[in-house]
Amino acid sequence: MTEQSQDRPAVHSKGVLAFYEWLEALGSAIIIAMILFTFILRVNEVKGDSMLPNYTEGTRVIVQAIGYQPAVGDVVVIDATHTNLDEFVIKRVIATEGQTVDFDEFGTVCVDGQPLDESAYLDPSVGTYSYDISFPQTVPEGCVFVLGDNRGYSTDSRSSDLGMVDARYVIGKVQFAFGGN
């Protein structure tokens, strides 16, 4: 055997070794992505107009699903499959347990007697609709009060179809949005 032919198997085995290392890295990345998107992050799609103008129909949202406690102002995905809505919905947390929610004669949300500043996300030209729950309401322990940003077209905690949301049904907080119409 010549010296050149002895080098060939070594080069070939280095190529095979590199391929297996690449395959192992790819497999590890796939497993990590599966764990990440199964237990830690979730992807949901916005359906309907209840969160306009901030989230449009078809927008996909990445949701932090683990280690999250609902907080006022957060946009969350809720598993409403056990309600009359029978779907996953996206809403904004307005109040948490123990807080009292009311609406003034102009539809302004008041939490614990104070008007809520919603100028950062609410279109002032959008009206409200009649609701079938009387106010003021105090949010029960372990629950949240949620509203859609497009108040005139949102079925939310003002309606008995959804009502106060048990925090166990809050899937998580929206961290990132992409796509949509």
UniProtKB/TrEMBL annotation:
It comes from the Bacteria. Residues 21-177 form the Peptidase S26 domain. The keyword Signal does not apply. The chain crosses the membrane at residues 22-41. The active site is at S50, K91. Its EC number is 3.4.21.89. One of its GO terms (cellular component) is plasma membrane. It is an enzyme of class 3 (hydrolase). GO terms for molecular function: serine-type endopeptidase activity; signal peptidase activity. Its main location: membrane. Keywords: Hydrolase, Membrane, Protease, Transmembrane, Transmembrane helix. It is found in: Cell membrane; Membrane. One of its GO terms (biological process) is signal peptide processing. It is a single-pass type II membrane protein. The keyword Mitochondrion does not apply. Pfam families: Peptidase_S26. Belongs to the peptidase S26 family. This is Signal peptidase I. The lineage of its organism: Bacteria, Bacillati, Bacillota, Clostridia, Eubacteriales.
